[in-house]
Amino acid sequence: MKIRIIKKNRLIKESTNTTTARYRQTQPRATGEITHAPEEIQQSRIEIGLNIDRFLQRPFVTVGEEIMDDDGEMRTITDPKETNLLLYLYRGVDPSGKLMNNEDIAAVNRELKQRVNHFLMGLSQFDKKVLASDIDFIIQSMSEERSSEQTPSHQSSRMLKTAPGHFDDFSFGTRTRSIYKDTRAGKDFMLKKTPELKNIPEQHHFLFSMENLMGRVKSSLGEQSGENVPPLDAVSYDANYRLGDTTQQIETERDRDAQPSEMNFGKAVRNLFLVVYSNPDEWVKYMSPEKQLELYGPYFVMLLLKVKDRLEKAEYPAEFFELEKIADNVPQVFFDKYEQAIESYIMGIEAHGFEERD
Q1: In terms of C-beta density within 10 A (0-12 exposed, 13-18 middle, 19 or more buried), how is residue 171 classed?
Q2: What global pTM score does this model have?
Q3: Same domain assignment for residues 181 and 288
Q4: What are phi and psi of 217, to 5 degrees?
Q5: Which uninterrupted H or E stretch holds 67?
Q6: FRET pair for 241, CA 20 to 30 Å: which of 127, 174, 311, 332?
């Protein structure tokens, strides 16, 4: 049985807890020794990472912004094809809004040049010196992160049919950006790290790579002096650029994770709902779905609240993935009743890259 959701929802509703309005991915990927660059360097790297997300990975004019039309009237953009997303520039859009089949390399190059200019305008002279020192490492890291295969959404197979797809873009500043407040149009879907450019001639694929875009940034920077900037390493890149956090925070998390955790204890004392539906024949074999909802609905709510609490506290939502594993055993009435909450959790989990652990 699939967990079906008919209606769409807008993410987890905000509560009085101030952390509710911002999810944070808490799983640093880089391992190894941690070295702490000076605070000024780290804050500069965090700002550079945010600007990569703001200006390089997104069109400058986006859906929801106002522009002046040919009659001098202001109107709001509602169609992505009116923006400078790379695919629409490359293929072209006819007056009726239909995608054409051009190969307009010049239009793509103009857009990329403009993005690089906006990106560099947002950096201080000090930021540029830091970036000049780091940029070769960044480009190499992007190349190593690039996947040779498309990664399927881990939720789509079991959970909501309408669950968002897997985010296969390069992520920067994920802890600093707020899901609720970052309302600019989504990232340019052509700047992928997976090989999905099936409708683009192979000789033009380089136009749509982040490595190419960062190479343009490097050329525009010129010979900036990176003196007194400590060499960037994998842990610092992961913390400052990808997560938008300090290496001191990553060290704190490592120390915390090395201690006995509530999550380990939770494996022994499981939510009753998970116990029941891990073996429904023993507990509810002859019980109607409605009666099951009546008896075990409160425990299902407790489970959902625990997932919400995990996300608010920036913790891995282990209970959600346990629920996903037994979803076929659970009557559809549970998911229909709490569809909005479930979908909001999936959107948050997908957006920040939490994945099922072995």
Answers
A1: buried
A2: 0.64
A3: no
A4: -60, -45
A5: strand 66-68
A6: 311
Cα(353)–Cα(113) distance, rounded to whole angstroms? 30
Nearest to 237, CA basis, from 214, 208, 221: 214
Q: Looking at the predicted structure, is the pLDDT value of residue 353 above 80?
A: no
**305, 179: one domain:** no
CA distance linking residue 314 with residue 89, whole number of Å: 39
Do residues 156 and 64 both lie within one domain?
Answer: yes
Q: 198 with 273, same domain?
A: no
Within 122-162, residue ranges assigned H as helices are 125-145
pLDDT tens digits, one per residue of 317-341: 888 988 988 999 999 999 988 888 8
Owner of token pair 């520039």: 89
The answer as to whether 253 is a domain residue is no
Among the ranges given (102-106, 184-188, 326-330), the one the predictor scored with the smallest mean pLDDT: 184-188
Split at pLDDT 50, 70, 90, the class of 74 is: confident
Helix axes 289-312, 339-351, angle to 10 degrees: 30
3-state secondary structure of 68: strand
Tell me, yes or no, whether 170 and 290 share the same domain: no
Separation between Cα atoms, residue 144 and residue 150, nearest integer Å: 15
Does 83 reside within a domain?
yes
Same domain, 65 and 193: yes
If asked whether residues 234 and 279 sit together in one domain, one would say no
Quote the number of domains for the chain: 2
Q: Is 12 a residue whose pLDDT tops 80?
A: no
Structural domain harbouring 106:
39-245
Return the ∠ at Cα 162 (arms to 182 and 167), rounded to 5°. Answer: 45
**What is the C-alpha separation between 102 and 93, in angstroms, rounded?**
9
What φ, ψ does residue 334 adopt, rounded to 5°? -65, -45
Could you tell me if residue 29 is inside a domain? no
8 A C-beta contact, residue 134 and residue 174: no
56 residue type, one letter: L
- Taking phi over 0 as left and psi of -120 to 50 as alpha, with beta for the rest, 17 belongs to beta
